User: Which sequence fits this backbone?
């Protein structure tokens, strides 16, 4: 049994912080004169109180957070924060029951962006800003987790991104804290730049800030039922394309560029691979729209660029219902969900580097096939690729698709039709947001699904956000043995 | 550039043999007095002549077949035999054009069983027996390939099944020949037993023999548009269940049991795993049919057992349209296509041992996760599982799903709806036969698909049958370099 105190202590501090943050939507509610400020005042008080008690009760200055504690911390913090984040959504009388409130919170904090709410355009501003804040917190949270914690735990090949100075042991927390500060500054600056961008194309201050938070977090919550489509006439989609991409690029590279120079940005294999594949897929979809006369001219390019970037980065904003673009578009957008952005970004899903590693391994494998005694060296970004990384990556693919299939099977067992079940499962585990089909597609919501399906999707979002293995390891009996 | 002569020589002999075999349907045609005997006489003459010329022209007594030659032989023989097998289907005037004739031949010889023909009940007997013969040849062909050739080429973890005496080098062909003789005898006996079984439940001799050949080959071609459903009243489905399972069990274990005793049959991990999973899934589907009142009593059990076994073994016979059993059944049967039988059987798809290896690797991985310095030994069937096998298996999963997704995407690009494209791709690469939905589901055929889609499916069937890698390695430039 690992020492739980440092885990509970850190999670307690996080909950306290979340409680304090709830006073922001409270202030927004007061400023806009809506009744929901009350829900945030109450929740903020309860949350920060319970968080402080938890932190104080488990304070143990000499306890250390080691590998098993880091696993527990990662999964437990995400779950605990979701519960408290749902509190104001439940208390405010906006028609959400426990399941719906929790669904909205989990979908927010995992930056998925699947929603059960309609009537967003008239919803209380406090609620809208809270949804944006949840995604914003989730976005920075996952970057720090991916850069400071997962590489040390060897999760799914993330050890590739272990920094020179990293090693296992007592230093996990101070390291995470100093990294979080530097990354947080970059994250904040990008958010401000995005909000200014939205402002320049005519969004009002509130919409600009809310959308900036969910754009850079590649989350996808909007303040309008029409999603970003409602702001497209003024060019908000172009701003969004730039900052969804910015959110899906590796923040470690930003940090290095900031501290030294721009060289790492041009030589980073993930960044190059990601931008290449995005460009290619935008071209394919644009050509498809043109050649089938579905959309024409530069409008086709714009719709293609926005929706491809939105799905690949896992944001989930929509400016068009690509369900209506014919069978190829449906299949293509289904596959796009499995691509993902760069490791160490706010984007989710399988991620580009895993495909790059898999294809390099495949190349070596096929080369070796007819000549057994050949020695082949695998490389990634000019460096030798250790077998253990390849092995972790391959295991990740297997686990990801297994979890995806199990989720889809359970959803169809609960009565969802094939398209809704399979696309919903993909969207949840890849933290995208919308699925395919009429119900949960870009023009629908998750509102009408049975509660049981919502719970399955929540679990899948959390497991997907934590790169599967981080959560799964907690379910093995051997983890809990001394 | 590998020495092509031994490859061309062996393929030439195979084509000659195929030509000679064509005189069987010719005789059947004459006996049943149908006009199509002519097509088989012509094709048999052409095929055996061209095959002989090819063999003689490439005869080189001192040339040896080494690793690269074995890769070429495997892929090239499957393609060449398909072309010649299509000849009589094209020449006989039964309404098949070049694409359709080739589709039917490829689907037969790969034991897929997807058909473009309707009106089977009134079709010429010579054509019907030819379709059955193709699957029967394909079945024994894949067992010999899987036992004698693939393990030596390290294909997707098949090296697990390398026999004690195997090693690379000159002995590939004599070994394959002696193995083929022993396995062929067992295969023939099982086919006779199956035909007798069908005869006992009231099938006429022709239907019994034709179905016996496609049952043991887990192929699935029938002599009736209603598939085996038309013979269900008499209990033909129960005979089919037994022999589809027999065809999907490892023939190496039969051989050992025959030569020594029955011990290996009870301790073989593949066999145990396969029978366990089949039993479990039959129970799940039966329970689902009961609890949703879709079918009742023992009839539900019988339909469930037949259709689950038919899909998992990749046979593709149908006694019910499980499309009508609701969303869970559709999703479940979709996933069943990816399971497959045992290695060294006539069954196809991913196969049980790969899942067993993957889960053992997963267990070791999750155990090691929180304790980096632990040493974990992976085992399969009591023996230590080398890393290279795990690596090959993981690579196989990645490749299989990548090829599957690419096939599905191309099919939807050709205008197929999502269900047809994705289930058709799965059915082709896993060599199952029917897909899902109204068009290519158990109650439909592939007739109405565009020619382009049929070509994509043919390619996918061959790639799937050859365990992906065998075919893919030929596409790498490095294969052809000296």
Assistant:
């Amino acid at each position: 049994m690992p020492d739980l105190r440092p885990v509970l202590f850190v999670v307690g501090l996080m909950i306290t912080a979340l409680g304090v943050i709830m006073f922001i939507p409270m202030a927004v509610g007061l400023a806009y004169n809506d009744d929901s400020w009350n829900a945030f005042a109450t929740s903020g008080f309860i949350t920060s109180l319970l968080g402080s008690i938890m932190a104080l009760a488990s304070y143990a200055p000499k306890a250390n957070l080691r590998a098993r504690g880091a696993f527990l911390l990662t999964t437990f913090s995400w779950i605990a924060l979701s519960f408290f984040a749902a509190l104001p959504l439940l208390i405010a009388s906006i028609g959400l029951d426990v399941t719906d409130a929790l669904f909205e919170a989990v979908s927010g904090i995992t930056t998925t962006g699947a929603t059960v709410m309609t009537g967003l355009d008239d919803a209380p501003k406090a609620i809208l800003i809270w949804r944006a804040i949840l995604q914003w917190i989730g976005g920075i949270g996952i970057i720090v987790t991916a850069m400071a914690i997962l590489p040390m735990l060897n999760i799914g090949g993330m050890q590739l991104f272990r920094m020179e100075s990293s090693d296992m042991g007592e230093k996990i927390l101070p390291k995470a804290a100093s990294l979080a500060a530097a990354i947080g500054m970059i994250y904040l600056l990008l958010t401000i730049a995005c909000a200014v961008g939205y402002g320049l194309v005519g969004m009002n201050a509130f919409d600009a800030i809310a959308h900036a938070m969910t754009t850079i977090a590649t989350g996808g919550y909007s303040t309008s039922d029409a999603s970003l489509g409602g702001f497209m006439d003024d060019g908000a989609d172009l701003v969004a394309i730039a900052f969804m991409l910015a959110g899906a690029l590796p923040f470690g590279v930003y940090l290095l560029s900031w501290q030294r120079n721009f060289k790492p940005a041009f030589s980073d294999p993930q960044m190059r691979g990601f931008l290449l594949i995005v460009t290619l897929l935008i071209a394919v979809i644009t050509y498809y729209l043109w050649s089938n006369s579905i959309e024409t001219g530069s409008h086709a390019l714009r719709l293609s660029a926005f929706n491809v970037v939105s799905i690949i980065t896992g944001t989930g904003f929509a400016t068009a219902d690509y369900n209506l673009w014919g069978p190829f578009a449906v299949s293509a957008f289904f596959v796009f969900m499995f691509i993902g952005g760069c490791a160490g970004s706010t984007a989710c899903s399988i991620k580009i580097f895993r495909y790059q590693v898999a294809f390099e391994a495949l190349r070596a494998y096929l080369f070796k096939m007819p000549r057994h005694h050949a020695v082949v060296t695998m490389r990634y970004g000019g460096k030798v690729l250790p077998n253990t990384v390849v092995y972790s990556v391959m295991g990740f693919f297997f686990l990801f698709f297994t979890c995806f299939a199990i989720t889809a099977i359970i959803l169809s067992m609960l009565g969802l039709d094939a398209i809704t079940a399979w696309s919903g499962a993909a969207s949840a585990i890849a933290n995208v947001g919308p699925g395919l089909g009429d119900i949960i597609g870009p023009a629908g919501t998750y509102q009408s699904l049975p509660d049981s399906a919502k719970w399955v999707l929540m679990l899948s979002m959390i497991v997907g956000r934590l790169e599967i293995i981080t959560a799964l390891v907690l379910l093995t009996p051997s983890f809990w043995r001394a």
User: Anything to note?
Assistant: Residues 164-170 of chain B have pLDDT under 50 and may be disordered. Chain B touches chain A through 56 residues (CB under 8 Å). Chain B has 21 helices and two strands.
